[in-house]
Design a protein that fits this description.
By secondary structure, the protein is mainly beta. It is built from 13 helices and 39 strands. Among the domains are: about 220 residues, no CATH class; about 120 residues, no CATH class; about 160 residues, no CATH class. β28 and β29 form a beta hairpin.
Length: about 800
């Protein structure tokens, strides 16, 4: 009798798990259990610590209590007991059993554990010895009540990589067996239920309540589930269907929920889907109907077909301050294989979604949840603040304005790389932005208004109109973008073509103050996010202290370089034609300028360009009008500051109506030669070619002429203010007499010149604090051209990494062949 109880108990618990949709192979040997001698029925070891039987006063009804019961697995899988229980109670009528009426009034299992597993060709609960009974006598068997109290349940189905874990505080089951059919009525609670298929959690730590009827037929290998109520926390489902558990397991189950909350529906999605909605809060009701169908084997899992409807629901994403109300939508979720979200698809017909000034309508479809192909066709009226929050933008806070969208959008998103699939973006329709106001955080810009009107087809995105203003800057763009479908690709082929007008542009306001932003910029080989060819007109342009009334010309970029090859500039009280370009140079930038200047103010040139980063000859010393060519190549660091050790400039210029005053070396020279006129030298014209490299100004021989004196000067002047000048100073006889030169002619080796005056040869060397000035006719007459050529060659070699400078760094060697010698 003890064996019958244990056998019946195992059979019923297996049926309980089947009622939850987790049993694929049901007990098939009930008949041998009942017709074979009890003491020969079990094929595994059974241990019972203590057996108690109720008194004879209730005879023929008996109560049997077994304590510390354990049954081994028939096939080792968990390496644990198949069944363990602190207590098993059995209530039977001896006389009914004696008469062949196999009815057990009750079985109660308390504080137990049940570990079941179906393997490829066997199970771990096949504990019944084969029967020798070949009779065809129909056998029936019934347990009126089987209770599981505080029991842990575990089930695995290895062919489909399916597993289920739960605990039940209270389950009540009724079982009736007749020939090949077992009928069960089940009412159970399952706490902390986790259901997994191929490592994917479809139910994770949820509380379930199940009330169902199940019919198991071993002849046809089917489990028929009658209309059942399954509550997964707040989700209330009705389900019915059939499970085939033969050689090829198969499911055909229908389910529906007439009323549940939208948020609860998200909570029961598979983890691979539900994680995407962790930050989403939904309120309102939802209706669902669906099917769960298909084979379960090594190569196939069932499909999921889910239709849903949401009415008057609210959506919120608190972290992004997004809210939508009165959402009405319906759609379909299809997964041909529940373990493969790559084949999944979802559609949504969004009839209405509103929030304050926002409204969205349209048809949405998504295919392949690994690399989603997204299609949206509809219209939307969105506040700029809502769109900024939706994009999770940390760089722009919009507080006013709206965007209207009407059209069809398609794109493919690679979730593993976190980016759009190249060339997958397509949009046909219109986009309008109106009066968008906000703050760009880095660089900090006060956006006062952005308005635009865009339209797109399959080939180009047309900028019909775009106006913007920030800080004190205003501008407009009109044109189109070719290859716009690659606009957000890393190697975008998109090109913006059109007209650009900007007033009061201050380039310094566009510098990022973020170290992280500068680091990201330096790691990229591109200087611009998009290619462009714009006919640009900039008025009231400013960069550092440089100001231009206007700059016009084509502004071009291939992403690696930004340039204006033919730029006309009104600035510095004159006119300039220039070719200007900036490009990435490893982690730095190369600014290349080739300009033709017409009568610009040399005083303003020095002043607005910070005296070209030197303090020797500044705007306080030099006045005049400059005409000529200036070539400059400046390497800028990540903060766009010039690296002086790599500066090169060449100026082939003429200065007219010039004045050199209060220049410290000339003041020292004036004192030395006793001629005050050198403290303020005015001249009509100077022409020379001056070069700057290796932090040194190289001045070839040039002549400064006025009525009182002529001066020939050549030499070098470093950025550290070390001078080496050779000067020949010619003065008229009257001035020479005044300066007492004639009396000291022999002492100073002053020569008579061909104009009747006197000429002195002077060598000036040192810093202003330690300046040496002396008469030296021989040294002054030496030609320094060869010295300059050698120094320049040395500098260029160092920049190319072919030689060294006195203060060369490893960074110098990285500099490639930037310009032609």
């Amino acid at each position: 009798m003890r064996k019958i109880i244990k056998i019946s108990f195992i059979t019923l618990l297996v049926a309980l798990v089947a009622s939850s949709g987790v049993v694929y192979y049901f007990y098939t040997n009930i008949k041998p259990i009942l017709v074979t001698e009890i003491n020969k029925a079990l094929a595994v070891e059974v241990n019972v610590k203590e057996i108690n039987i109720s008194g004879l006063k209730d005879f023929p009804k008996l109560g049997i209590k077994l304590k510390d019961v354990s049954i081994n697995e028939s096939t080792s899988f968990y390496n644990e007991k198949l069944l363990e229980a602190k207590e098993l109670n059995l209530f039977i009528d001896i006389m009914r059993l004696w008469k062949g009426d196999y009815v057990i009034d009750g079985v109660a299992l308390r504080d137990g554990k049940l570990n079941l597993a179906d393997l490829a060709k066997k199970s771990n609960y096949d504990i019944i010895k084969p029967s020798n009974d070949t009779s065809n006598v129909a056998v029936s068997f019934e347990i009126k009540s089987l209770k599981l109290i505080n029991c842990a349940l575990r089930y695995s189905h290895t062919p489909s990589d399916f597993s289920c874990n739960a605990s039940t505080p209270n389950s009540n089951i009724r079982l009736k067996y007749l020939e090949e059919t077992t009928n069960l009525k089940i009412k159970t609670k399952l706490n902390g239920t986790t259901l997994t298929v191929e490592g994917e959690k479809y139910i994770s730590n949820k509380d379930l309540a199940i009330q169902t009827g199940i019919a198991v037929n071993t002849a046809s290998s089917t489990v028929n589930i009658s209309t059942s109520d399954i509550d997964i926390e707040e989700v209330k489902l009705q389900t019915e269907g059939t499970v085939f558990f033969g050689n090829n397991s198969n499911l055909d189950i229908e389910f529906k929920s007439n009323s549940t909350t939208a948020q609860s529906l998200l909570s029961i999605l598979p983890n691979s889907l539900s994680q995407s909605f962790n930050h989403v809060k939904l309120s309102g009701n939802a209706l669902i109907t669906g099917t769960f169908k298909g084979e379960m084997n090594d190569n196939q899992n069932p499909s999921l077909h889910l239709e849903y409807r949401i009415d008057n629901s609210n959506l919120a994403i608190p972290s992004q301050k997004i809210k939508l109300a009165k959402i009405s939508a319906n759609g379909l979720l299809t997964m041909p294989n529940i373990s493969n979200i790559e084949d999944a698809s979802v559609t949504c017909k969004l009839r209405q979604a509103n929030s304050d000034g926002n409204s969205i309508r349209g048809d949405i479809s998504v295919k392949n949840f690994i690399k989603p192909t997204v299609n949206w066709k509809g219209n939307a009226e969105l506040e700029a603040a809502f769109l900024s929050a939706l994009a999770d933008s940390s760089s722009f806070d919009a507080n006013q304005g709206s965007i209207a969208i009407e059209g069809e959008l398609n794109f493919i998103y690679d979730t593993e790389k976190g980016e759009l699939v190249p060339n997958s973006l397509h949009y046909i329709g219109n986009v309008q932005g109106k009066n968008i106001v906000g703050i760009i955080k880095n660089p900090k810009l006060d956006v006062k208004n952005v308005s635009f009107n865009l339209s797109a087809d399959t080939e180009k995105l047309v900028v019909n109109e775009a106006n913007f203003s920030y800080n004190n800057t205003t501008g407009s763009v009109v044109g189109y973008i070719n290859e716009y479908n690659s606009l957000f690709d890393k190697n975008s082929d998109a090109v913006l073509v059109g007209d650009l007008n900007i007033n009061n542009l201050n380039v310094n306001e566009l510098y990022s103050t973020s170290t992280e932003s500068n680091s990201l910029a330096s790691s990229s080989s591109n200087i611009s996010p998009i290619q462009f060819k714009l006919n640009a007109e900039l008025t009231n342009f400013k960069y550092n202290d440089f100001k231009a009334e206007s700059m016009t010309g084509y502004l071009l970029s291939d992403r690696k370089r930004i340039e204006m090859p033919k730029c006309k500039i009104d600035a510095l009280q004159g006119k300039t034609a220039a070719a200007i370009s900036v490009k990435k140079l490893r982690e730095n930038y190369l600014l290349d300028i080739n300009s033709e200047l017409q009568k610009i103010s040399i005083n303003q040139l020095l002043k607005q360009f910070n005296n070209f980063e030197q303090e020797e000859i500044t705007h306080e010393h030099l006045n005049g009008r400059l005409t000529g060519n200036i070539l400059a190549k400046v390497i800028l660091d990540q903060n766009y500051e010039p690296i002086l050790s790599k500066l090169y400039a060449k100026a082939n210029v003429t200065i007219t109506d010039g004045q050199l005053k209060n220049y410290e070396p000339l003041k020292e020279l004036s004192s030395f030669v006793e001629i005050n006129d050198l403290e303020d030298v005015k001249f009509k014209t100077i022409t020379n070619t001056i070069e700057i490299f290796d932090q040194t100004i190289f001045i070839p021989k040039m002549r400064i002429e006025n009525n009182a004196l002529n001066m020939d000067l050549e030499g070098t002047h470093t950025f550290e203010n070390y001078m080496n000048y050779r000067i020949s100073l010619s003065v008229a006889e009257l001035l020479a007499t005044k300066a007492n030169w004639i009396a000291k002619k022999k002492e100073r080796r002053i020569e008579q010149n061909q104009n009747g005056g006197l000429t002195a040869y002077i060598l000036m060397e040192g810093t202003p604090e330690d300046l040496s000035i002396k008469y030296d006719r021989t040294a002054v007459k030496e030609n320094i051209k060869e010295e300059v050529k050698k120094e320049k060659a040395k500098f260029l070699k160092a920049l190319k990494g072919e030689g060294t400078l006195e203060e060369e760094t490893s960074e110098t060697k990285d500099y490639d062949n930037v310009w032609d010698e």
